[in-house]
């Protein structure tokens, strides 16, 4: 919320189902997805969140928010956890390892080049970060990044208890879009470079299904600052 305010965007916090009413778009932030699921269950928030995503309104999940939006999450320490779903992908919850393996890197997001006159870089802050292991055919890959050498090898346990290595490629997917859903494994709001959050907002804009939800498309740079001020995540009505 502080990062949004920094770029002139206002929003409201959502903890209860009724607080989703009247909102145009939603950011599901990072944190710890098991705890977030417990809290969402406690407040009976899952049905309202699924309805919001299903209604086609722009939704952006960062890190634990990405996990929440995935149809399938692997890498839980024990048992499963409830997910909102809607994003046709499999996410590994702690792909990049623990807090100690948190890192920052420069990401290339080709889609941004269209909006930013060729500049398509975005600083990625990865904290106990998940990664996307595979995506369905409707999912657009926006960014991937090299797998760091110190990433611990990851395994999943099948129903029979057999462990298998599930990822051995050099690069891994860290940002995707499927229709109204944008998801990033990293935290654009945590860099000192406000451009990164602005970029994410622009990508979120691309997820807007109707003009009513469009905030940044077709605006040149001069207008972006104004658009940031004008955008309220709470409601435009
Ligand atoms: N890996 C964390 C989880 O399982 C997410 C970390 C984050 O949101 N920074 O929820």
Automatic annotation (TrEMBL):
Name the catalysed reactions: L-glutamine + H2O = L-glutamate + NH4(+)
According to its UniProt record, this protein's enzyme class is hydrolase
What Gene Ontology terms describe where this protein resides (cellular component)?
cytosol; glutaminase complex
Gene3D superfamilies per the UniProt record, alphabetical: 3.40.50.880
CDD domains linked to this entry:
GATase1_PB
The terms under GO molecular function for this entry are:
glutaminase activity; lyase activity
Note the Pfam families from the entry: SNO
TM helices/strands, residue ranges: none
Q: One GO BP annotation here?
A: pyridoxal phosphate biosynthetic process
- Output the InterPro entries linked to this UniProt entry: Class_I_gatase-like (IPR029062), PdxT/SNO (IPR002161), PdxT/SNO_CS (IPR021196)
Q: Which UniProt keywords apply?
A: Glutamine amidotransferase, Hydrolase, Lyase
The EC number(s) this enzyme carries: 3.5.1.2
Q: Its domain of life?
A: Eukaryota
Assigned protein family: Belongs to the glutaminase PdxT/SNO family.
Q: What PANTHER family does the database record attribute to this sequence?
A: PYRIDOXAL 5'-PHOSPHATE SYNTHASE SUBUNIT SNO (PTHR31559), PYRIDOXAL 5'-PHOSPHATE SYNTHASE SUBUNIT SNO1-RELATED (PTHR31559:SF0)
Spell out the protein name for this chain.
glutaminase
């Amino acid at each position: 919320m502080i990062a949004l305010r920094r770029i002139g965007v206002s929003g409201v916090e959502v903890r209860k189902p009724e607080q989703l009413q009247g909102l145009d778009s939603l950011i599901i932030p990072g944190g710890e997805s098991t705890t977030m699921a417990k809290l969402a269950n406690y407040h009976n928030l899952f049905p309202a969140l699924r309805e919001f995503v299903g209604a086609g309104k722009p939704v952006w999940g960062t890190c634990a928010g990405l996990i929440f939006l995935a149809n399938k999450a692997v890498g839980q320490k024990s048992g499963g956890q409830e997910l909102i779903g809607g994003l046709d992908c499999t996410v590994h919850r702690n792909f990049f390892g623990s807090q100690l393996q948190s890192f920052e890197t420069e990401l290339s997001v080709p889609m941004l080049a269209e909006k930013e006159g060729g500049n398509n870089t975005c600083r990625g802050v990865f904290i106990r970060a998940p990664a996307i292991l595979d995506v369905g055919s409707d999912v657009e890959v926006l960014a991937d990044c090299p797998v760091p050498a110190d990433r611990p090898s990851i395994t999943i346990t099948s129903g029979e208890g057999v462990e298998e290595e599930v990822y051995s490629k050099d690069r891994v997917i860290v940002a995707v879009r499927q229709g109204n859903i944008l998801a990033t494994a990293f935290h654009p709001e945590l860099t000192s470079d406000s451009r990164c959050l602005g970029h994410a907002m622009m990508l979120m804009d691309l997820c807007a299904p109707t003009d009513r939800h469009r905030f940044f498309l077709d605006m040149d740079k001069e207008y972006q600052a104004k658009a940031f001020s004008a955008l309220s995540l709470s409601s435009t009505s």
